[in-house]
């Protein structure tokens, strides 16, 4: 584990469900740190914001709205590439090491729980076996998820219960790990997670469910108003439909279905809203397990200066 001196640059994490204002808080926090002579840079921990061109549907902050603060690991993958947390972890940690080497604080921001966890906690990934995975993927292609999920239930019922039964990629990965004699991490934290960098602070944004749902529903409507279909049309030309991860993203899969005539616009929006609400619920459950999380009311007015002042006094 990396050693952090008492006055060494800190790692911050700004986490929470979609639509809770994580980007705004990360910028406010960076400016509050800078006002005290502690420069800060931001590192992305949203799996879909890794992709170039996926802007409207991910609420990616435009470059001209980033207040001159350096941002890392945004727009680093083509939509045809697979976003995998085992790929992401070493790159995010290296970005943080380099930020700290420059004497700046690092702010990790995003709502992809496993991605955040892979950075802030000691987190080892099970090994990979390309040949084994290819055989399992061939089975998936031929027989669908049913037989593979049944096999996973027999070998690891807890992991099987956590995985979306329609998510063939996750089922294949779990079976690949088990076949190599390893325990699946099941997209879960270690039982007693230890911080990768001691002294890290985790700021978790919360919104009461009754207030969050209408915010999320309106956010989806704005996606279509702001050009979601046009964005997906452009991404199709870049190979979106050939991607293994990007084409399944919430909103993008529905926009593709609308363009193909399988859904009306009203249906695409309604389906995206339902999936977004469900995803936000999973995000809250994930981050609630973080013992270090400092929960903040996202709608109550957050004083970034006070947060930084508190960290200065530590």
Layout of secondary structure:
Elements: E1 11-16, H1 22-34, E2 40-44, E3 71-72, H2 85-101, E4 105-109, H3 113-120, H4 130-143, H5 145-155, H6 157-162, H7 168-179, E5 201-206, H8 209-225, H9 228-237, H10 252-259, H11 265-288, E6 293-297, H12 304-313
Helix pairs in contact: 1-12, 2-3, 4-5, 4-7, 5-7, 8-11, 9-10, 10-11
- State the order of secondary-structure elements, H for helix, E for strand: EHEEHEHHHHHEHHHHEH
Low-confidence stretches: 1-6
Strand content: 5-15%
Tell me the helix content: 40-55%
Rounded to the nearest angstrom, the radius of gyration is 20 Å
User: Could you give a short account of the major beta sheet?
Assistant: 6 strands, parallel
- Termini gap: 21 Å
Summarize the structure.
By secondary structure, the protein is α/β, with parallel strands linked by helices. The protein is 48% helix and 9% strand.
Describe the structure.
This protein is an alpha/beta fold and 314 residues long. The protein has helices at residues 22-34, 85-101, 113-120, 130-143, 145-155, 157-162, 168-179, 209-225, 228-237, 252-259, 265-288, 304-313; strands at 11-16, 40-44, 71-72, 105-109, 201-206, 293-297. It has a six-stranded parallel sheet, sandwiched between helices. It is globular. The two termini are 21 Å apart.
């Amino acid at each position: 584990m990396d050693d952090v001196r008492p006055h060494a640059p800190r790692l911050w994490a700004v986490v929470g469900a979609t639509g809770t204002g994580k980007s705004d808080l990360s910028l406010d926090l960076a400016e509050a740190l800078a006002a005290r002579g502690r420069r800060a840079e931001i590192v992305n921990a949203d799996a879909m914001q890794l992709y170039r061109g996926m802007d409207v549907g991910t609420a990616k902050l435009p470059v001209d709205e980033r207040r001159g603060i350096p941002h890392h690991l945004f727009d680093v993958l083509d939509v045809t590439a697979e976003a995998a947390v085992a790929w992401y972890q070493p790159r995010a940690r290296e970005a943080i090491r380099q930020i700290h080497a420059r004497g700046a604080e690092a702010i990790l921001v995003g709502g992809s729980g496993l991605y955040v966890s892979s950075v802030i906690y000691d987190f080892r990934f099970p090994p990979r076996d390309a040949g084994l995975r290819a055989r399992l993927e061939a089975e998936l292609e031929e027989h669908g998820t049913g037989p593979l999920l049944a096999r996973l239930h027999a070998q690891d019922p807890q992991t099987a219960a956590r995985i979306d039964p329609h998510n063939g990629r996750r089922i294949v990965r779990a079976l690949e790990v088990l076949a190599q004699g390893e325990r699946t991490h099941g997209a879960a934290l270690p039982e007693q997670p230890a911080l990768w960098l001691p002294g890290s602070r985790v700021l978790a944004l919360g919104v009461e469910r009754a207030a969050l749902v209408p915010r999320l529903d309106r956010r989806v409507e704005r996606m279509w108003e702001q050009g979601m279909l046009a964005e997906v049309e452009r991404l199709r030309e870049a190979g979106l439909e050939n991607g293994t991860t990007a084409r399944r993203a919430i909103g993008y899969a529905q926009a593709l279905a609308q363009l193909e005539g399988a859904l009306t616009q009203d249906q695409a929006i309604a389906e995206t809203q339902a999936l977004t609400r469900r995803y936000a619920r999973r995000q809250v459950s994930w981050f609630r397990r973080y013992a270090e999380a400092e929960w903040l009311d996202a709608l109550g007015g957050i004083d970034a200066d006070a947060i930084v002042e508190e960290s200065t006094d530590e």
